[in-house]
Amino acid sequence: MTYKRIFLVFSLLALLLLVSACGPSNTVRLLPMKPAASVLPTPSASTIAVVKFTDKRVDTSSLGLRRDKSYFTTMDDTADWVSKAIADRLSASGFQVSYTMNASSAKRAAPDYILNGSIDQLEVRETSATSFEAKIRVNYVLANKDKVILRQPLMAAGSTTTFPNNSAVEKLLAETLKDIVEPMNEKISTIVQH
Question: Taking the domains of the chain in order of start, what are their residue ranges?
Answer without folding.
Answer: 44-191
